[in-house]
Amino acid sequence: MATPIPSPPSVPFLGHVTIIDREVAIYSYNLLAKQYGEIYQLSMMGSKVVVICSQELLHEVSDEKRFRKVPSSALDQVGNAAGEGLFTAHGDNPNWHLTHRILMPALSTMNTRNMFDDMVDIVNQPVQKWERFGPRYKIDPSQDFTALTLEAITFCAMSYRMNTFYVEGVHPFARAMADFLVESGNRALRPGIVQPLMRATNSKYEENIKTMQKYVDDVYNQRKENPTDKKDILNLMMYGKDPKTGERSSEKTIKENLLTFLIAGHETTSGMLTFILYYLLKNPEAMRKLREEVDTMIGSRTMTVDDVHKLPYLIAVMRETLRLGPPAPARGTAPFEDALLKGKYPVAKDGRIYCGIYMVHRDPKVWGEDAEEFRPERMLDGRFEALPPEAWQPFGFGVRACIGRPFAWQEAQITVVYLMQRFTFVMHDPSYDLQLKQTLTIKPHEFFIRTIPRTDRPSIVPVATPSSTLLRDQTAPAAQPPVTTPGEGGGHRMYVLCGSNTGTCEAFAQRIASDATVHGFKAVIGTLDSAAGHLPSDGPVVVVTASFEGQPADNAAHFVSWLSALNGSELADVSFAAFGCGNRDWASTYQRIPTLCDDTMAARGGKRHAPRGEGDAGSSDLFESFEHWEAGLWEALQKTHGTTKVEGRQEAIKVSTVDAGTARATALRQPDTMLGTVVENRLLTSPGVAEKHHIEFQLPDGLTYRTGDYLAILPMNPSRDVQRVLAHFSLLPDQEVTISAAGPSPLPTGRPVNVSSLLSGYVELSQAATTRDLRILIDAAKSEDTKAALSELLDGYAEKVQAGRLSVLDILEAHPGLDISFALFLQLLPSMRVRQYSISSSPLADPTRASLTVSVLSAVPTAGRREPFLGVASTYLASLRAGDCVQLAVRPSAAAFHPPADPAVPLVLFCAGAGLAPMRGFLQERVLQKQAGRDVATSILFFGCRSPQHDFLYADSDLRTWTELGVVDVRPAFSRETEQSAGCKYVQDRVWADREDVVKVWQAGAKVYVCGSGRMATAVKQRLVEIIAAQLNVDSEQATDTFNKIIKGRFATDVFE
């Protein structure tokens, strides 16, 4: 019996056109697959298309006796230039069969080997370019790989040099082709009646076709006028005969296929190479293993043709890259006769089927729950060969599969080997996460890198490299200053390297760099990843880094991987010191990365200047711990380098007034690609409890997220606090100043800046003063009474300053006689940092929007404070209105903190207060999947708040509706009205009361997620251990061991303070 194919709601006449992203359609297809499952049907302006997303269905439609290839609408448009080439011709075209038979031998693996030397010739061109431009140059790998692959095709296949690396900017052919492909894709989505009206667009389209065809004419005519005996592909097309019919290709067919090779051949290979670099940079362990394989099997010698296909890990990297980033993300097919897919889904004869290769390559039944993770090991040791049929299909299928696969496969291997031999790679933006650009193919968008010539082994082509690789990215090879240039004048060079996700370590690193000039040093500051492959030896290296569940920060992963792989005395000339941040709540991984860095640098020969310092982010003395360690560091460095501290109160920055403010000039922020817009901001709570807001954002174009990810917000200080500073220093809001700094500074230096803008967005006004700040203020105080009062604060720091969150501003206001300059005030303040909030929505609801569920922090005044304490980011977010613009970015959460791909897997969710945010996203996704007809398990939500009337978030809206749908079973714990929650006050109490249900759903294969404060998470974990102890009748220690064993892969936490 036939089963209807599910289909999303549609719009009359247009069908589903409006729900498909025009820029990156594959995003929409993938989200629909998550919602509707392995198959769904779309109507595109009256034309029906069935989309398949599983290995089973792809295997079925790959039966060439039942199904035939159908070029996509966009591919049909490409035929406007490429005619009836191999890529665009329909299966019944006789020219396709003739050309295919002629060219098959020329593009065999054996014949491709003969092109090896020519390929090496071409690969050397971008390598030499990157070497000459050096580590400061900002590289667009997609652009350079496009130039490489175009050059390789023209030279290897046609013995013609395009010279793409020797022209200014982009080659005219490449530019015309890129524009042509974009417009071909756009034409495929437009109603036919509209196209004739777009005269300017049509004119440009025709011009691009003429440019491409003229280039092909030049290639063809040059060969006709200058014959050669070289057995390249062009000669074979011109003079070869069809082994079946004896016919030769016509001039028209030859030219169409030359253009086809250039279009199809360059796009897929350049995309694959760009994806390879991206995934290796995001997965430093894979990068390390690949580099190790190249170094071991090829070393510094020149690669030969016999090395091709001999590097198993490289092949695994290429296969895994093509799995996650197949440049051709889909193909079209249709049945010869009416068909029932899987024996139940009806597809009419000649009905279009969209084979979603991108989704099939993520099929959890084949690839597992970690299908989104880059793991080349899944392609090794026979696992690739053991895959079910059609689980991996990046090159098409059957007789219409990519004829140039051997060419691309060899070209990619040569390129990657040459790059691995010569360079260490660094992302231009360490926080970059994959964004796609889609034309006929997909490739990373706005992805930039820097290349650092390797110095850890002999290079095939020796290149000079500076001692420090901590250099600013630039877009041209002209000289540029370092990331943060050392202060003018004398001083020993030093390097401050940070690994930071949340901004704390970065702030500490900035503090060290800013203090350097006072102690006789010139500091350069950068990320740890900027030093991967080469630690500077011409000055002390100071490492400030953190652990995140035992893993390095995003901008430290490559450094840690590189450092861990060292096995000799490579750092004998390096001197260093390290400070680590961590949280003792996670005892098993506390300080893991700082300890690893410190121990390994010493083990590899480095000289330690000072014992490793450590700070506990979960305690009140984090800043005091850092300052105590920093003082010891400067003392040690002064001894070893013979420097002296400049005594007296030093102002490392200078502020000059530019405009008195009477003109009321306004400094406007320019919107950038990361500018989001507030769509909605509504209060979720009743008066009398801490405010909690639901805030929805329209995301910038191209920004995507997964359920469970974070939204990073760059906030502004509360206007109240800005006004307090202005009043204290007798400044006008519109006054302008210029700032000059003796050392690295996070402030806007060397240009006029509005004082109000400076105070609003560049510094943290509310952060508690540190012990170092207090000592500086004591030195600045002129009154003995003031000195005594400040000394009292210093002596009782934890209780009187840290606990009460007394800021420098609070202290200045409490002691009017304490007179410091505005410049020194700015110097004492840390730079503004981003705050990360769990996204409380699912992209299945709307991929262009994301919501936050935010608790607003407002504490009553404590001793020493005149005003209530306001949380910077939460106050900022609560004040936003619809239409306001916000600087934001999506940050990925831990790999485990995403809902399972199979909605039939039940979830157990533990949270309290705003910790409900990611859980709401999980449940919203499950609701949409259920409404799409998928089998969805009922999840249990344990939620803690004060009372059902005041702060039971979403109780009367989402949670009620979702409960009625059977998606969730809510188990609340009301701390102020326990009689309303089965006598349970906190989440952990409700867990114990409902322990039988918890055990039952766990035995059904549930996955468990916890989000909330560290205290809540620890209490829930302890209660789960107690449940195990009671179930198994064992003691606490045995129950804890059992808990730690059974939760692997099934328990994820997202904890905040």
Which keywords apply here?
Cytochrome P450, six-stranded parallel beta sheet, globular, Cyt_P450, transport, Rossmann fold, alpha/beta, Cytochrome p450, single chain, oxidoreductase
Portion of residues in beta strands equals: 15-25%
- Structural class based on helices, strands and sheet pairing: alpha/beta
CATH class of one domain: Mainly Alpha
CATH topology of one domain: Cytochrome p450
CATH H level of one domain: which superfamily? Cytochrome P450
Q: Helical content, roughly? A: 25-40%
Model regions low in confidence, pLDDT < 50 over at least 5 residues: 459-489, 659-673
Mean pLDDT: 87
What's the CATH architecture of one domain?
Orthogonal Bundle
Largest sheet: 6 strands, parallel
What does the radius of gyration come to? Answer: 31 Å
Helix segment count?
Answer: 34
- Name the shape in a single word: globular
Please give the number of β-strands. 33
State the end-to-end CA separation: 55 Å
3D architecture notes:
This protein is of the alpha/beta class and 1057 residues long. Among the domains are: 76-453, Orthogonal Bundle (Cytochrome p450), CATH 1.10.630.10; 497-641, 3-Layer(aba) Sandwich (Rossmann fold); 898-1055, 3-Layer(aba) Sandwich (Rossmann fold), CATH 3.40.50. It is 38% helix and 16% strand. Strands 12, 13, 14, 15, 16 and 17 form a 6-stranded parallel sheet that branches. A 6-stranded antiparallel sheet has the order 24-21-28-19-20-25. A hairpin with a 3-residue loop joins strand 9 (436-438) and strand 10. The longest helix is centred in the N-terminal third of the chain and has 32 residues, at 251-282. The chain is globular and about 105 Å long. The two termini are 55 Å apart. Keywords: FAD, Flavoprotein, FMN, Heme, Iron, Metal-binding, Monooxygenase, NADP, Oxidoreductase, Transport. GO terms for molecular function: aromatase activity; flavin adenine dinucleotide binding; FMN binding; heme binding; iron ion binding; NADPH-hemoprotein reductase activity. Its cofactor is heme; FMN; FAD. It catalyses: 2 oxidized [cytochrome P450] + NADPH = 2 reduced [cytochrome P450] + NADP(+) + H(+).
